[in-house]
Amino acid sequence: MKYRRPYLMKEEEEVPRIKLAVALFTAIVLAVSLVSAQEVSQEDYDSAIDELRFILTDAAMHIDASYFGDLGEDSDKAFTQFSKIETFWKGKDQAKALELTEKALGAISGISRASGAQDGPAATAALTELRARFDNLRDPECLNKPVGTSC
């Protein structure tokens, strides 16, 4: 089907729309990066820890029931909360906590991959590692204890 020129957008009209789209995209990316770079308060940190307790419990139930779609959602939620925790510890300049948080984010990635592959044993192993990191991060006094040590 051929279009006649009057029905097509003129080149002069096309350029401003492209510029507008690029500007809008840039503004959104900038806004998201500014929000994520903000400091996280102790209250926000405590809230993220509380939310993670629920998420990790849900993840264990979803693994046991082989609800891999729900497990994928759990990994997305856990990533969001651990990102807050990472921002909190960056503000405190706490290297050990940042190391634990990075490893926790790696374990979340493992859960996500296992969810996509519908691999229950891999998901269980990744969740076990994530819980070990979480146990050390949830209480600042536990940061220097060996990973997996009960606090």
Which helices and strands appear, and what pairs or packs with what?
Blueprint: H1 11-36, H2 42-64, H3 68-92, H4 95-117, H5 120-138
Helix pairs in contact: 2-3, 2-5, 3-4, 4-5
For this entry, give a set of tags.
mainly alpha; Four Helix Bundle (Hemerythrin (Met), subunit A); 5 helices
Distance between the termini: 71 Å
Strand fraction equals: under 5%
Major beta sheet, specifics? none
- Looking at this structure, what is the CATH superfamily of the domain at 42-142? Oxygen-evolving enhancer protein 3 (PsbQ), four-helix up-down bundle
Mean pLDDT reading? 82
The gross shape turns out to be: globular
- Please estimate the helix content: over 70%
| SSE arrangement, N to C | HHHHH
CATH topology of the domain at 42-142: Four Helix Bundle (Hemerythrin (Met), subunit A)
Spans of at least 5 consecutive residues with low confidence = none
Q: Calculate Rg over CA atoms.
A: 22 Å
Number of helices: 5
CATH architecture of the domain at 42-142: Up-down Bundle
Instruction: Tell me the name of the CATH class of the domain at 42-142.
Output: Mainly Alpha
How does the helix and strand content classify structurally? Answer: mainly alpha
Topology, number of strands: 0
Describe, in plain words, how this protein is organized in 3D.
The chain has a domain at 42-142: Oxygen-evolving enhancer protein 3 (PsbQ), four-helix up-down bundle (Four Helix Bundle (Hemerythrin (Met), subunit A), Up-down Bundle), CATH 1.20.120.290. It is built from five helices and no strands. The N and C termini lie far apart (71 Å). The protein is globular. The chain is 77% helix and 0% strand. The model has no long low-confidence stretch (mean pLDDT 82). Helix 3 (68-92) packs antiparallel against helix 4 (95-117) and helix 4 packs antiparallel against helix 5. By secondary structure, the protein is mainly α.
